[in-house]
Amino acid sequence: MTFAPTELLREANLRVTGPRLAVLAEVEAHPHSTAEAIVEAVRDRLGTATIQSVYHILNALTDAHILRRIEPEGSPGRFELFRDDNHHHLVCRSCGEVSDVACTVGHAPCLTASDDHGYVIDAAEVIFWGTCPSCATQATQTPPTS
Amino acid sequence: MTFAPTELLREANLRVTGPRLAVLAEVEAHPHSTAEAIVEAVRDRLGTATIQSVYHILNALTDAHILRRIEPEGSPGRFELFRDDNHHHLVCRSCGEVSDVACTVGHAPCLTASDDHGYVIDAAEVIFWGTCPSCATQATQTPPTS
DNA sequence: AGCGTATCTATGAGTAATTCAAAAATGCGA
DNA sequence: TCGCATTTTTGAATTACTCATAGATACGCT
Asked: Is the CB of B76 under 7 A from strand D?
């Protein structure tokens, strides 16, 4: 319940505008939305909105660390509210749906590479690939023809 | 040293062609190459090559599990020889360079999500983000102006 | 070795996702 | 409520990649 979009914007020194609030409301309501889905939601709220503006807003909010962008291979970018909680993602190979998972072993064992090659590592990103319950059910009912 | 491109192709029931051998030679010589870099290398070897053909070849070899495609956010797709060894990647935020890392804790602890949300998980992908040694050195010499 | 055909590559066009540049509109501090 | 910097819109461009089809090539067979 600590979701105060206006203050998030103010704290980042960004102006509070209709389109920005609409984008934030949508991302909060539907995490992991694509830019495409977000424009549509913004249009529902405000009447009009261009995809370019939404991209511009998404970039501004991502730069300000209000949003986080994830981009599973083969999918357009998706956006969620930025949380400093080290969670990871579960992606369905069949429908592309994304879910959150907390990091497996508490805090960070899987965030340490065995050999860092001299890199200064600042983050680890984990993506679990699989099939979501509803796609798994469908696949059982109508197996792929190959 | 056990790199026999011709046999890899034969085993997958694929024809052994100049372009395919050139692509494999390049990926073996420079793992994590982009399609763009690969066409250029193929052109050096064979005289001509179109980017579309290279994409076609890369897709065919990826489907045959001879290559693996990785796509760090913000980067075009990159290709490496497929090895069933569960290794992960280290990506430099500054220059985009990719290095391999063995999975941290042996076999698979970081491959198990704490809560699978009912998904049937078949793979886990880990990307470590950071700064590579040479970019880190440059950054120290000329700090960013902001 | 030569042939025929299925497989592969080249050519040309097209699409999806995203960015860039410049003009019009709007938020908000004074 | 005025002014101006910040935002949004408009319109065009770019990047990474796919699709369709025609032409070329590998390779099993004789």
From this structure: yes
DSSP for B119-133, please give it.
-EEEEEEEEEEEE-H
> Nucleotide D19: nearest residue by CA–C1'?
B52
Q: What burial letters (b/e) apply to B45-72, b meaning 16+ CB within 10 Å?
A: eeeebeeeebeebbebbeeeebbbbbeb
Adjacent-strand bridge partners of A14: none
Q: The domain B5-78: what is its CATH number?
A: 1.10.10.10
Number of A–B residue contacts, CB under 8 Å: 140
Where are the domains positioned within chain B? Answer: 5-78, 85-141
What are the tens digits of pLDDT across the range B34-89? 999 999 999 999 999 999 999 999 999 999 999 999 999 999 999 999 998 878 89
CB contact under 8 A, B90 and A103: no
| CATH architecture assigned to B85-141 | 2-Layer Sandwich (3.30)
pTM of the full structure: 0.88
CB atoms within 10 A of CB B105: 14
Residue A67 parent element (H or E): strand A67-70
pLDDT tens column, A75-124: 999 999 999 887 889 999 999 999 998 865 544 445 566 678 889 888 88
Q: Where do the H-state alpha helices sit in chain A?
A: 5-11, 18-29, 35-46, 51-63, 133-141
Write out the DSSP string of A11-42.
HTT----HHHHHHHHHHHHSTTEEHHHHHHHH
